[in-house]
């Protein structure tokens, strides 16, 4: 299959790489079909690219990069892939990741969903850079 | 009932408060409005991210990941 995305240009992929979100993504319920791409320039970000709307893509991160030890509980026990959505605003220092509702991809089924964890310790807007960058003195 | 598959139950009435339970099929998403809005907002913002912004963020992440540069 071929698809042209505004940011990533022409993409070519086989059918088995298409991820289906049966419920869509919250706020984008009509968008069901995506591919997950690795873009060398912006790694470790990976991109969930819609193959229905040429303008739509979401930057994702492995949550372990943001918060080592992160766990999506029962959702990551079956060989699935858990990724978190990053919000990158105008001020890059203010970037956040949504640890509370990660994207879970069932590798074998080629389906994915955005789940909502019960754990309140995981924030919908967890700062991507803060805290671990304390000012160095002396 | 809401439609023919969603059941709303009054679980308790106490101190002027009513506790309501909702029973729905597994594939029906039940979400507090604030939570829905929170995720909606953050997804919408994520959808606007440019590759350039991600490249910038990636650089900062890489700096953090290489402690050699920070004299630790």
Outline the structure in words.
The complex is a heterodimer of chains A (138) and B (72). With 138 residues, chain A is an all-beta fold. Chain A has a single domain (2-127), classed as Roll (BH3618-like), CATH 2.30.290. Chain A has 1 helix and 10 strands. Chain A is globular and about 40 Å long. Chain A starts with a strand and ends in an 11-residue tail after the last strand. With 72 residues, chain B is an alpha+beta fold. Chain B has a domain at 29-64. Chain B has 2 helices and 2 strands; from the N terminus they run E-E-H-H. A two-stranded antiparallel ribbon of chain B has the order 1-2. In chain B, a hairpin with a 2-residue loop joins strand 1 and strand 2 (17-23). Chain B starts with 6 loop residues before the first strand and ends in a 7-residue tail after the last helix. The model of chain B has no long low-confidence stretch (mean pLDDT 87). Classes of the chains: A mainly beta (138), B alpha+beta (72). Chain A binds chain B through residues 7-8, 23, 25-28, 39, 41-45, 56-59, 65, 85-89, 92-93, 95-96, 98, 100-101, 114, 116, 124-125, 128-129, 132-133, 136, and chain B through 27, 29, 31, 35-36, 38-47, 49-51, 53-58, 60-61, 64, 70-71.
């Amino acid at each position: 299959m071929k698809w042209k995305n505004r940011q990533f240009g022409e993409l070519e992929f086989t059918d088995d790489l298409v991820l289906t979100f049966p419920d869509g993504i919250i706020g984008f319920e009509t968008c069901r079909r995506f591919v997950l791409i690795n873009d060398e320039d912006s790694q470790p970000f990976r991109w969930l690219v819609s193959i229905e709307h040429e303008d739509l893509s979401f930057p994702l991160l492995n949550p372990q990069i943001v918060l080592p030890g992160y766990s999506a509980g029962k959702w990551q026990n079956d060989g699935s892939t858990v990724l978190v959505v990053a919000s990158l605003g105008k001020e890059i220092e203010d970037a956040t990741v949504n640890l509370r509702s990660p994207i879970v991809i069932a590798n074998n089924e080629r389906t994915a969903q955005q789940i909502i964890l019960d754990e309140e310790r995981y924030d919908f807007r967890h700062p991507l850079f803060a805290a671990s960058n304390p000012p160095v003195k002396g | 009932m809401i439609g023919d598959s969603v059941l709303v139950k009054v679980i308790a009435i106490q101190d002027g408060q009513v506790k309501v339970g909702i029973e729905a099929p597994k594939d029906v998403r039940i979400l507090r409005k604030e939570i829905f809005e929170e995720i909606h907002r953050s997804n919408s913002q994520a959808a606007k991210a440019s590759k350039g912004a991600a490249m910038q963020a990636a650089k900062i992440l890489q700096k953090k990941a290489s402690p050699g540069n920070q004299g630790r």
